[in-house]
Design goal:
The protein is α/β, with parallel strands linked by helices. The protein contains 16 helices and eleven strands. The chain has a five-stranded parallel sheet. Strands 2-3 form a two-stranded antiparallel ribbon.
């Protein structure tokens, strides 16, 4: 055996040499370790690399409003109103790096610890009741997500419908829609004034109650839909129905940059992003990380932030003097002020906080129609009462 000369390697480079074991030989022969050397085709897919939120030049109000709604969803969302090309959509999509973590239910039925605190152990499913008794967590940590509503979305895409894919099961079942996937997330509706009425109504109903029900024949399901609504619109393309306008907490009028130096800086940053988006994102990564930490800290402090009766009555007097009827005015103003104070590391709202945020919370809320309607109603009532004293 030792006198047998070593085998010379073959000239064909495609033959594998250096086999160290029978197992390796079998794996090579059966193609288990085969590597396809052919060039890969372009799949045509694009990686999502949003323009960094903090790289936006100027637009203080818009940035502040969006960050406040991340800290406190009770603000009621944000409506961005302005001309095309003013950075509205870019700002919202750039929020993904600033989304703070939240606790999501780890249960199929969505059970949460606060359900037990509010309704007792019977308020959750038996499995979660057992977990609670054993001290096991009912939630898992996750980041808030940005859910975008496509402009061409159909009603079934928004609320959900029948999932009739044969591979799913032998029977039909309901599938979740965009509103259900938006639960505890941010729902962004670009060009919100161009939505058709049935989708607008569906969003309004879900936003008002936090849940909605889908019925398709004998099947029905109720989904949670607690989301922060962020919308954008160009007033040149049409008005927004007063009913959905009232659902937005903060209203921001986004104007184009007027300072020449700011416009030049905006151009340079845009050019840098188009040339190398990853490098641009990296340059603002540290600032984004710090901002995320600040938002997370403020969100943790928020439950401890209080507003005194004195400060609250100051805000209510302001709203009354402006002749604003909607109760959402106080909710938005006070909740935005609580988030603002939390971001400043304070546990008590000051009058100066209300003064800072009042334009964003109260603009576009006064109605020219309602005062005239109420005045005519008073005149009519006085006329009716005047007949009581007639003989």
């Amino acid at each position: 055996m030792n006198d047998i000369p070593p085998t010379q390697p073959p000239d064909d480079d495609t033959v594998t040499t250096g086999i160290r074991s029978l197992r390796e030989l079998i794996e090579v022969a059966t193609g288990k370790t085969f590597e396809d050397k052919r060039p890969k085709e372009d799949a045509g897919l694009a990686e999502s690399l949003p323009f960094p939120f903090l790289a936006l030049v100027g637009q203080y109000e818009m940035k502040l409003a969006l960050m406040l709604t991340l800290i406190n969803p009770a603000v009621g969302g944000v409506l961005l109103i302005g001309p095309r090309g003013s950075g509205k959509t870019t700002a919202v999509r750039g929020l993904v790096d600033l989304m703070p973590p939240i606790d999501r239910s780890a249960c199929f039925y969505g059970c949460l610890p606060e359900d037990i605190e509010a309704g007792g152990i019977d308020a959750v499913c038996p499995e979660c009741a057992k977990k609670y008794a054993l001290g096991d967590p009912l939630t898992r940590s996750d980041r808030i997500k940005l859910i975008e509503l496509p402009l061409n979305a159909m009603l079934e895409d928004v609320v959900g419908g029948i999932d009739d894919r044969p591979a799913v099961s032998e029977h039909l079942r309901l599938k979740r829609g965009i509103l259900a996937r938006s639960d505890l997330n941010v729902l962004f509706v670009d060009e919100v004034n161009l939505l058709n009425d049935e989708i607008t109504d569906a969003i309004l109903d879900a936003s008002a109650s936090g849940v909605y029900t889908v019925r398709r024949g004998p099947m029905s399901a109720t989904y949670r839909s607690r989301f922060s609504l962020v919308g954008s619109m160009n007033p040149e393309e049409g008005d927004l129905r007063p009913q959905i306008m009232d659902r937005f907490g903060l209203r921001i009028v986004v104007e184009g940059l007027s300072d020449p130096d700011q416009r030049l800086e905006a151009y340079r940053r845009t050019r840098a992003y188009l040339n190398n988006p990853r490098r641009m994102i990296t340059e603002f990564a540290e600032a984004s990380r710090i901002a995320l930490e600040e938002i997370t800290t403020a969100k943790t402090l928020l439950p401890n932030v209080l507003i005194s009766d004195e400060v609250a009555h100051w805000g209510i007097r302001l709203i009354k003097e402006l002749k604003i009827d909607s109760m959402r005015s106080e909710i938005t103003l006070f909740e935005a002020a609580r988030a603002y104070a939390a971001a400043d590391g304070r546990t008590e709202v000051a009058t100066s906080d209300l003064q800072e945020l009042a334009p964003m919370a109260l603009r576009l809320r006064r109605s020219e129609f309602m005062p005239k309607f109420i005045d005519s109603h008073v005149v009519e009532d006085d006329n009716i009462r005047s007949h009581f004293n007639q003989p």
